[in-house]
Amino acid sequence: MPARRIQQPQPEVLSKSVADAVESFLSALEASGASKLTLKSYRAALQSFASHVGPSRPVSQLSQADYLSWLSEMRSKGPVGPRGGRWSSTVHYYTIFVRRFLQWLGISGLPAEPQRRSEFSGALSWKEVEAMMSKARDLYDLLILSLMAESGLRAREVVNLTWGDIDLAKGEARVRGKYGKERLVVLGQVARSVLSVLPPGGPNERVVKLSYQAIYDRVKSLARRAGIDVSKVRPHVLRHTFATEALRRGMSLPVLQRLLGHSDIRITQVYLHLLDEDVRREYERAFMQPQQPYYMAPQYPGQAYMGYPLYPQGFYPGMTGQRT
């Protein structure tokens, strides 16, 4: 995550309560140009920390031990996902936000945040994507699927896309991703077709006038109607699907990194893990299919050696090399 340059706290902040110091930090973060979504994420993390140490506790009493105690609680008790599991990615980002706050207060000696494990929530097959497209109820269903599965957009990027971002003549779109970073993406054939028939709006008018939750619900509904397990389908899985399909079709990793907007190519390399399954399937297709039975050379005619295959049936050492 790119670090923003935040104005250092005034001396009086150190005499405030934790809750008041959190508000001062968020004000400084907003002044640095942080987006509303970034501020919301920081607030959730810092409120979690403040609740643990006590919102009215003086900042001057905070120490490294408080951070370690909070981190231990986070790992064991939360945040909790919808199926009861712990969201390790959320814990990872919470630690970054809280460390940033404490360092802003001048608290040093904090241990480095734990290395985030590379995680991959899976991808759909392209046949499944086509099945979902075949169940589209309107043009917006098709457009949403295409932008995520054919161009790799995040759901929130679809929400924020405006008509001024679209260049149909070039088949491109300008996308504002995480932390305000912009990138160009190539529009898929389906998206180009849909956008060419939709009535265009003003430059600042959103193309898809839906909330994130509405897009989420549409994707789930499309999966259900296509007969796909709904539990494995959500908007971000379509982005994963774009990435893995692009690699399968021969796109280079650096180009994919640029299209996805990843700052570090190691993030993009996560998608190579799924391709390992392709390698395994290809191997099994080539070598594990039923073949003509093979047998170990018998010690005497008619005897197989423990049933393990080695020589073709009818081919034993000393023969001419022709099968019988």
TrEMBL record:
InterPro entries: CB, DNA_brk_join_enz, Integrase-like_cat_sf, Integrase_catalytic, Integrase_recombinase_N, Integrase_SAM-like_N, Tyrosine_recombinase_XerCD, XerA. GO terms for biological process: DNA transposition. Residues 119-284 form the Tyr recombinase domain. Keywords: Cytoplasm, DNA integration, DNA recombination, DNA-binding. It is found in: Cytoplasm. PROSITE patterns: CB, TYR_RECOMBINASE. Residues 16-106 form the Core-binding (CB) domain. The active site is at R154, K178, H236, R239, H262, Y271 (o-(3'-phospho-dna)-tyrosine intermediate). GO terms for cellular component: cytoplasm. Site-specific tyrosine recombinase, which acts by catalyzing the cutting and rejoining of the recombining DNA molecules. This is Tyrosine recombinase XerA. The gene is xerA.
